[in-house]
Amino acid sequence: MSWPVLVFDIESIPDIDGLRSLRGATSDVSDAQVYDAWLAERKEKGQSDFMPLHLQRVLVISCVFRNAEGLRIHSFVDRDGASEGKVVQQFFHAVEKHVPQLVSWNGGGFDLPVLHYRGLRHGVEANKYWDMGEDDREFKWNNYIGRYHMRHLDLMDLLAMYSPKNNAPLDAMAKLCGFPGKLGMDGSQVYAQYLAGQTEEIRRYCETDVMNTYLMYCRFQQMRGGFTPAEYAQEIDFVKETLGNLAPNEPHWQEYLAAWM
Prior knowledge:
The structure is a single chain. By secondary structure, the chain is α/β, with parallel strands linked by helices. It is about 50% helix and about 15% strand. The protein has one domain: Nucleotidyltransferase, domain 5 (2-Layer Sandwich), CATH 3.30.420.10. It has a five-stranded mixed β-sheet, with helices on both faces. Strand 2 and strand 3 (about 70-75) form a beta hairpin. The longest helix is centred in the C-terminal third of the chain and has 26 residues, at about 200-225.
């Protein structure tokens, strides 16, 4: 298996400012009223209450970065409610700097389109990410945008043979493979947690989710011959050791390891 690898996952919340702008809401209408009115309209039309991707505001981008020097877990977080553009830019700067293998679970169906729309809104620069062979000829045949290329590997999409009806949830697959799966909350609870001021809890949840994705990637690498069984076992031990070193200062890794043992 070649390094570097950057596994990523995002957590997002409804873009109420954007919704307010599109609906022409006046300043005397509260955010809650704007959102509730939109929900009521969707319900009346029998539509989903899931916010369209262009109105998903990025709150957290969590990453597992693995290269020859080790394994790092890092999150870009909009803690002040005004740094979404900076958060998205930091992610694409990491792609620009390292030109890694990107790995996700449903990244092609959700995470990346959200990052595209929000990056466009905030004037983000992502030159290498968007290269499809114009600057680097190798990217013509293997780029981040192509669904069937491996520079971005959407594990869920690939394992389902690119057929949405075959998609499997990360939580279920992680648990079936012996990994902890989701802990504490799920994506449907993120907005309520945000409104309750629990941004750090959301960050921790996102980090455990991205670690599940990295472990599934390791499992996939063993299946496709990128890891020998011995190399796979060694990598799993290395992940546990890394998380063990983080656990004293980050309680979610203590919980994660306890669920794994």
